[in-house]
Structure prediction request, 1060 residues.
Amino acid sequence: MSALDGLPGDWQLVVGLEVHVELATVTKLFSASPNRFGDEPNTNIDPVTLGLPGALPVLNRQAVELGMRIGLALNCSVRRCTFHRKNYFYPDMPKAYQISQYDQPLNVDGFLALPDGTRIGIERAHLEEDTGKSTHFGGAGGRIHGSDYSLIDFNRAGVPLVEIVSRPDIRTAEQARQYVTELRGILLAIEASDAKMEEGSMRVDANVSVHKPGTPFGTRCEIKNVNSVRSIGRAIEYEARRQIDLLEAGDQVRQETRHWNETEGRTHTLRTKEDADDYRYFLEPDLVPLAPSPEWIAEVRDALPMLPAARRDRLAQATGAEPDSEAVMVVVDRAQDEYVLAVGAAGGDVARALVHVKEAWADSPSVPAADLAKLTTMEVGGKLTATQAKTVVAELIANGGGDPEAIAAAKGFEAMGADTLGPLVDQAILENAEAWGKFIAGEGKAMGALVGAVMKLSQGKADGKAVTAQLNVRRDEAASTHS
Amino acid sequence: MAGAIEIAARVRDGSVKSAEVIEQHLARIDAREPEIHAFNLVMADEARARAGAIDAMVAAGRDPGPLAGVPIALKDNMCTHGVPTTCSSKILEGWKPPYDATVVTRLAAAGAVIVGKTNLDEFAMGSSTENSAFGPTRNPHDTSRVPGGSSGGSAAAVAAGFASVGLGSDTGGSIRQPAALCGVVGVKPTYGYVSRYGLVAFASSLDQIGPLTTSVADAALLLDVIGGHDPMDSTSIPLAHPSLVDVIDQGVEGMRVGRITDLPEGADPDVLERTEQAFDALRAAGATIVDVQVPAFTFGLTAYYLIAPAEASSNLARYDGVRYGLRVVAPDTNAMYGLTRAAGFGDEVKRRIMLGTYALSAGYYDAYYGKALKVRRLIHDEFERAYQHADVLLTPASPSVAFPFGAKGDNPLAMYLCDVYTIPANLSGHPGMSVPFGTGTDDLPVGVQVLAGTLCEPHMFTAAAALERAAASEVRR
Amino acid sequence: MSERISAAVVEKVARLARLALTPEEIERTTAQLAGMLEHFADIDALQLDEVEPMAQPYPLENVFRADLISPGLDRDEVLAAAPAAEDGRFRVPPIIGLDI
Prediction:
């Protein structure tokens, strides 16, 4: 767990996250230029994108649909909504206003469940347009402060965004990490965004404050430029400690926007809220209200794929693992769960399949499910040890599939059934009388030496589980003889 | 020959060449434009080339369209690809749009010939065309007087015969008031009737493009061409509009013509007298006169001068010296913004940006902008009720005939009162038009305003045509 | 709402609007805005509590475009019209002091 769980004193962390995601549309939110990352500067431009005099926005239906998908996946109500202008000057904001949603957003009042079941409230998820990109030249190496000039590329201007605003329900840095990871998984599953933090198609701002339980929330600071899941935790931890230090020294936390510096591992003031922004929001007169019909909402809801949490539950149920166990989390995150279940459907053992898939493939498994099913069957039948099975899987991958039995035979992995194993177990007991004595006296630890001895005698061909089972049978026999 | 209907008919049947028509108009421009200054740019070469192409089409047996060879003057706030579009502002001086406005595309497809871009009050803010950064336009009827505004250039160009027809934009009366002062027909259609795509925005929820013409029939023809749904404008009404050319001769028998009994005072006696005669003329033509009330009419001015500047303050924020137009060189971007905008905008534009920014800013929104939106609803609803009893309403278009330059002095409010009768239709979104109806003081033209309900342009044009016929017969008497 | 507007407020509004007004302009604008606001106080007498604000004249909803690319603008044409351009991008002086 995170270092923050040991906050000094009885300080309690309070975090809300604002996550901006670029939608995976073909074109921009209000115009027909491509929504594409990495093109030559200023090649995806049109009168609307550049805010040319006379240009007018027209809403992209697909952006609305993806926005609704996000809202529904986050258990929000989708509502009739409007667009507002948020007025501010910045060179990469072409019209000097951003078209966003203000008091009537598309999605409201949802929640996201963390893998352990904790619900983080979603206040709203609304549509808005992205800005262009400024690059700073001269001065101290690309920093905005002290630069000589800046160059502006408007390819990104007008790209559709959904801003997902959580309630301040997050209490640890680890929860913040889990929230972002889970959200990312959902966005990928519903194909609403490619959600690449490193490319900026998913951007996280954190509102951080501290307080003592039973007292009102403290003054919050907004942390910007948190560009990886790892830095989310670091930035929040740093900021919480900074605020606690201030408060314990008798100072106050100023409400401000702070910038996370990944290299220095600290936040610094970007701007204070004293010169509060006056965005002069008003209804965007160039657009009309958006009122998704119940039929449309139902259609989008029905078309949603199974979300990661439900997939983890399904896999956990099938394999007997915990829904938030590492194997289940990893396999679902890599979208390998369908394959694991397919192994089960082909008559294999899903629990063994889960382990093999998690360890053998980083992405989509490359072996027919039936082949892995056969392998897991051999394994649970005691015909292959775990180590041998792993070797066979490697061989299956190398050949793109095959008959596990043939591979095992070729490798000389003879079947070691109960009849072969029994004499070896007996021999090991005879040769390790002291350990055996302790084992039957109830010292579970002593079993390790006995299992090791059997393994040695079998030259590694014995299955650990089968050995354990036989040793337990022998102990129970011994106990009944004594009584 | 000046009428668009006649020109188009004769160019289409080959009995007159588009080139001849253009030369006639260019000759008039040569003769009087130095005195009038209707244009920011005369496009003589482009017009001649275009006329040649139209004649070639006719010679090849192809139909150039319903406006074949019709010379048109375009207000200089409509984007024309590769041709400077300035809004009569230094901040856009020399800017060549990389695209055409929808109306420009439609005019081209209909065979019209643009002869020039006309002067206006900077960014369409004004009622006299005195606010142009490039000097005022003079009224062809009396060059010591203003042509009205903000579409004063287009109104003067049509009145002076520089173009057969013109396009203006109307945010608070900017087509109808100059039409009245220049003695031409001016139409502000229902909001959403004509696409705003490519019209440089002043106040987006109020702006509409419309015709300035010498006859009601020409206005109908022009509106038939430029009107109709445009997917590039989200506020464009997705309905098919009936042809107005087909309805204007229907007559007003049985039509209910409303008189607003609580109309704000302030119109000059000559204007009021002509308006009364307009009621008489329609009654004589078979219409019934009914009384209606629009108590909130008088609050239109306040609502308008809070809403329009608020939207304008946002619409004009894009003139920041980054992507196009004027830039004043400065050590940092913020200084560049302030200096560029201070140097590029004229006094009236700055005043409205200030007023609008104030009305929207934190702490004042509810008291000003928010309240103005409610007054707007009140006015709209009262008009809707009035249109249950009346098919059209008649009012003066302007409180006075054309006034001398400088007459409104340095008092912005005095100028704002020029639009007191036209503003409510912009707030409510209903259509309105000004029809010349005789003359007033010093033989200067008087315009009567015909107002109608949402998408009731057919009624409005029918009544306007009846007034036009009555005015013509009076002149003959 | 008819209280006079102060020069300090007008200065703040000018900053928000990015208009570098001279002291004389601030003074004149303050007087003019005060005159207008006084005139605009006529609507204070109206009973508007039950009235819905009206932002747009014609009641449309759900106006969309399909998610299809259409040809955009030519970069060279656009940059040729820019006050300053470099490397296919728009050039601006250092971006500082923008947070007011």
Remarks:
- The CA atoms of residues 285 and 401 of chain A lie 61 Å apart.
- The longest helix of chain A spans residues 229-248.
